[in-house]
Amino acid sequence: MTNLIIILVSVLLGSIGQVILKIGANKLGSLSFGLHTIFYDLVRIMKTPEIMLGLVFFGSSFLLWVKVLTKSELSYAYPMVSLGYINVIILSYFLFNESFTTMKVIGNIFIIIGVILLNK
Fold first, then answer.
1. Region at 88 (left for phi over 0; alpha for psi -120 to 50; beta for the rest)
2. What confidence score (pLDDT) does residue 118 get?
3. What pTM does this model have?
4. 53/114 Cα distance (integer angstroms)
5. What DSSP designation does 37 have?
6. Residue 77: which of 28, 11, 7, 22 has the closest Cα?
7. Domain range summary for the chain, segments of one domain joined by +
8. In the 8-state DSSP scheme, what is residue 2?
9. d(Cα 117, Cα 95) in Å, to the nearest integer?
10. Each residue of 55-101: pLDDT tens digit?
11. How far apart are CA 112 and CA 46, in angstroms?
12. Do 21 and 96 form a contact (C-beta atoms < 8 A)?
């Protein structure tokens, strides 16, 4: 696998993990993380399958990212992480019925242009 593909897969896994975490967070509802509830809150988090699955995706993304860092310059690889924003916005539109505004489209275009310019 080329390094660019590994970067893109890592970014994709991270953004999918974020979306799955959001699904789990929606199931959890509110968390107080107060002094008397921290243990209970942590147990609730760990018992939520979507949270655990999201962490698996993040863990996989992390492992691939470490591989990327062994082979690429950070100034080349890191800007590509911003491509995850595009994935999250698109997935959020379909899964959570979040708005897809003109400003989000323009912002995504700027992100894509920025990644292209930084990697020339």
1. alpha
2. 85
3. 0.89
4. 31
5. T
6. 7
7. 3-118
8. -
9. 31
10. 999 999 999 999 999 999 998 899 999 999 999 999 999 999 999 89
11. 36
12. no
